[in-house]
Amino acid sequence: MTDTVTTVDIFAALLQTYTAVPAAQRGSSRWVMSEATAETIRPLKDSRGGPVWTPLMGGGPDEVPGSGHELLMGLPVEIRGGAEGFHLESPSWT
Question: Is the pLDDT of residue 93 over 70?
């Protein structure tokens, strides 16, 4: 039998990661993930059918996914080669 990761599993893991960060530090945090992980998360919808991943409009014609001009659950996304899964980083953490 193989393990199947569902959309619900991914969304639950995102929420668990997000809520594990103290609210006071979330504003300076960013998601870090590989392009492959981002491709899995980009199409996800919340319980109301809205996107959890939001490309920011107003960028130039050279703007590409992973350029820091995208939001996941309201926080910027950084696509980093070699990253596995996803995590949150904040410059305020010591």
Answer: no
Contact present, 58 and 13 (Cβ < 8 Å): no
Residues in the chain: 94
Residue 57 falls inside a structural domain: yes
Burial bucket for residue 90 (CB in 10 Å: 0-12, 13-18, 19+): middle
Predicted model pTM: 0.76
In a domain, 25, yes or no: yes
Q: Which residues span the domain enclosing 12?
A: 7-89
